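Objective 1.3, modelling of assemblies. Example input:
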Amino acid sequence: MVRTILVDDALLQYLHTVANDNIYAVGLILGQSCLSKDYVVHFAKTPPYQSQDDKKSQKTPNKPNSLEDFNEGWLADHARQATRMLPGGMYVLGIFVVSPEDVFSPFNTKIKSLLHSVYSTLNDNEYLFGSPSTDKLIVHQSSKTQRYSSRSYDVLSRNVQNVELKTSPKKWISIRCDFEINELRFLSKNQSDWPLEKHMKAILNDISNVLDSATFLYDGEYKDKDSTLENVSKKKGKSRSDKNVAESGDASKPWQVSVLQNTSSSAALFSEDSVSDCEGNFRLIGKVVSNLWMQPKMTVSEISTAVKEDILRSLFSRLELHWDSLIEGENSEDISSVHEPPRRVLIPLPDSEIALSDYLFPGEGSQETKVSLEELLDIKIKGRLNINDVEGQADIEDYYKGASVSDNEEISLKITTYSNYSMYVIGLIVSLVVLVTAVLFKFFM
Amino acid sequence: MKPKINISESVVKRLKNSSNSCCGKLYGIATQSEIVVLAICVDQNDVEFKNCLPAGIDFCGIFNIADEASHYDPEIISNAVFIGGVVGKNDLKVHIEESGKYISTLFNVVLEQHINNTYFYIRTKGHIPFQSEFTKDALKETFETLHKTIPSELVFGIFKSNIFFSANEINGVEDNISLKELCEDSFNINEDFNKKKVTNVKPTVIEFNILRKLTTNKSSELIKDHAPIGILDKRKLIKSNVFIHFLFIALLGPTKVVNTTLELDSLAVVKNDIKIKNLYNIMLESIKRLLNIHQAKLLSFLKNSTSTKSLVHQVYHYYPDECQHFITVLYAKDQSESDLKASRLLLHKHLGLQTNSPCFRRSNQYMFEKNLNGPLINPHEGLKPTLNEGVVALVKGKYEYFHYCQNKMDDNGWGCAYRSLQTLASWFKLQGYVNREVPTFSEIQQCLVDIKDKPSSFVGSRQWIGSTEVNFVLNSLLGIENKILYVSSGEDMPSKGPELVSHFQNHGSPVMIGGGVLAHTILGVDYNQQTGEIKFLILDPHYTGDEDLHTIQSKGWCGWKNATFWDKNSYYNMCLPLVPREV
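Predicted structure (tokens):
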């Protein structure tokens, strides 16, 4: 069966515009694959290459004059950053190329090298879930003839195949999941010197293990893993209208996913039971809100995997953004501190029900989102941008103050007592007594 | 109207047979219309006892068994039952509180079969991670937090089904049906259910898995509604003064924390017509009771952390025959049976049980799952009683039925005494007296070679053994002393009636009997002193079929036999294993 890329007119129009404005251009194909069909949700032209020096000197980047002018690392980094913005189940499926010459006969080696670079960067981190498939799409739009053609290229087998490109309307099933995190790690003596990044990665591993053995419910119901929500949604529609017309007449209401941890699986257990010395603790608390859009033909087990990937991808992305933003020393500082990674906000794609994610640091707002939309997705928004702040910002004050009233009351009480001067004196006296006794003991025994 | 009083037969028996004066608390299931007294605790002041009973059984009154009929002023507790009696009088007076006084009332004795036909047990299994600072206050606080968080977090899934119970809803099945209907509808939930319908003596247990809900639909109060943030709390103290820092470490010690996983495996008892939407709360209650026991164990571990190395405690459920209800106990992983002797004795005392045979060793634990491939356990249960009207004395506790052709070994014609020996050994294993598996044929043969009873060619042979060899092997491999009884003819077997009655009453272990070329196991006798008539409950090791209880019982492979069962032309030796008197 020939792979088919499904696009809509607006996306074709976009390629056309890019080819009109540029002689040479590359960009990303974003979307979802299901049963040898690729459902494209967005094309995003890669911004012109700027080296660090160029950025500093605010030099306008050069227009590329041949395919050779495209930088592999730059494109791969674009793919990585775009992947962070994608909901689970969606990936960078491949790249589009605009050039005057034919690139498929023979298959252009530069394009191969660009794809290899994208593939290896996306697979660099296990929690980005960047590239599940090795078969990448290439859509070529001729800037001379305005014709398009497409192929697939397997970065492992190096196999090139023909791919059809069709326009077709797409239907999506929308999925919602509010995943709560409340992970506490006691730090042993050697762990307390770990950089923040290491603590966070340990928690990511824990969450990943838990999700691997979890049970997923859809609107509270257990679904067979090979079934699709398309089939059941009809039944559901009926029972919903039977039961409660007023409440849920809206068929497009997302499926609410519940994640149940099997408490007897090994992921739920500590690897060892211990009483140990502790030099502090690290807690990650808050919720990750996931919104996914899946093809109706997707099976329940594929959807569950996508939900899992979305939670981890989103959590990993924001944590990575956070520790990258820390200046030297902050990552391994010695004092108690509250870390607030950027939070997820959803931005609807123009002319689509699908929304992509952006991550906002405290204090950032729609202005910053506009910038990243333009840079990473080539979407220019005029006027007000609606961002959906699904998770909400923490009131950090709660936690600074809360440190003394939280469940670790004991701990903070001790911390405060240490700063109490009279305790120093008592401690000093007691220690002297101990010292003297020890000396006497040593000499007279 | 005052509720009807029903008292479990086992409670009545223990109170009537009490040889000392004692007083304590009554536990049972109380509703508007009736109070069913199911359990006793012979200790008026114990407050923890309730936690080892299934949820649903609560304090419902007090009892006092006095040395002689004297005046006793029971504490007035509203709606409580008060049972009074006199040692050796075999008579109980039951009262119920009414407007500040105990009023004498009638009561019914209820049998185990009735209880287990009316009530079902809910077993809830899972684990819960436990992290806390290792101080008394912090542990208590962490448990308090657990009690608060579990109602919103836990979801119970019926074992091997797609039915899930959460705090507000039940998914996978209509929520206005009763538990009984649920069990009848979903054949998969309890495969035995329909088969068991006829005589349901043993408790019906429905198993649930514990799951933790990691997602919300609404914001819960305990987790603040916001994107994830990380809070790093480091206890690097006063950096400027290293001396002071070390001084405090030296004085107070570094902060200790505990990381462990609590095993959850709790029981609740409910009327089988309960609406399933009411089950969630009772399951939660059963978990809370278990958490209370865990808390007590961790606190005592904290107090003397040297006596036991393991902070991990394992859950054991017991269903002692003399109690006819479940008792849940936690034992530390590394505690040996002898370490636990004192706590077992206390349990016997609390429950008013004899202290001459163990009920609460690990191997006494109740077997929920039947081992489908292994030998049957106690195949004599459910047999019709004889009409001999004598004293019935039976094997106590559990044994496994070993017979010909098990574990793919064809011992037809020569292995019967080996199999009978294995049945005897299984009894000692299951009762917790010995800590070894049932010996195999080659282990038995090797043992007889080792003690120089047989030549070395005996190992691997198909030579049969008799009661003398059974005696040797039990003695050498299990350290069991045996009494040997001899009759010169099968006709004389009835004369051993009194001795056998006494053996089963005092020791309760199965007896191996060999005569001619046949070996059997005697599981009990029914001896009528007036008529001298005797019936023997025989377990026949010559059975070659599958582990099919129906065939075994109906074809008499396990059943009551007349004295004529024994061949008058052959002599018989019986090997009566003697049992240590301990708990």
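Residues 193-199, 236-240 of chain B have pLDDT under 50 and may be disordered.
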